[in-house]
Amino acid sequence: MHQSSIEKMNAFRDKYLSAKINDPLRILDLGSQDVNGCYRSLFSELVWDYVGIDMAAGNNVDIVLNTPYVWREVASESADVVISGQAFEHIQYFWITMLEVARVLKPGGICCIIAPSSGPEHRYPMDCWRFYPDGMVSLAHFAQMEVIEAVTQWQDLGYDDSDCWHDSMLVCRKPDKGIWWNKKSSLKRWLQHWTTTIGMR
């Protein structure tokens, strides 16, 4: 976890969650294992429930997923916030994972994803993708999420450990447009998910 990623996630917290420090938020961190740092300290308010989830047991991991595509370990509409940093580039079929992000978010819940737009190969255990703003927007739209912002750090900012990654950041929200619209949207996501994970079950 490099310094610029931590600062970007801290900026997300300050901008979108600072007014909710007294709200009992459940915050899921996808790809949470502490590898040279993690986000836990950014979400340590007393009434917040930070839950680290990853594919392997380790430091800062509370829930171990069996697969990144079918999260049987996490209930639908159980999270107020989902965050993820430096994980999506390692997920082969990240668009399926995004459907699970949307599923576990409550209506009106917010998501922040940080992933590199450049940088050298870093297999953990594989390194599949890089992301630009248009790709982040497309990812949100695929899962029927509302885009709040999608940006890339195009310029060097003087980070010795992280300027090479030029991270992109997506902030999006699961819409809450009433019970019938929400059910229709959930059904559409379920169909998308079912058709893309038939061979993974």
TrEMBL record:
Gene Ontology biological process terms in this record: methylation
InterPro entries xref list: Methyltransf_11, SAM-dependent_MTases_sf
Pfam families: Methyltransf_11 (PF08241)
Keyword terms of this UniProt record: Methyltransferase, Transferase
Gene Ontology MF terms in the entry: S-adenosylmethionine-dependent methyltransferase activity
Superkingdom in the source lineage: Bacteria
Domain named Methyltransferase type: residues: 73-113
UniProt name for this protein: Methyltransferase family protein
Organism: Methyloglobulus morosus KoM1
The organism's taxonomic lineage, starting at the top: Bacteria, Pseudomonadati, Pseudomonadota, Gammaproteobacteria, Methylococcales
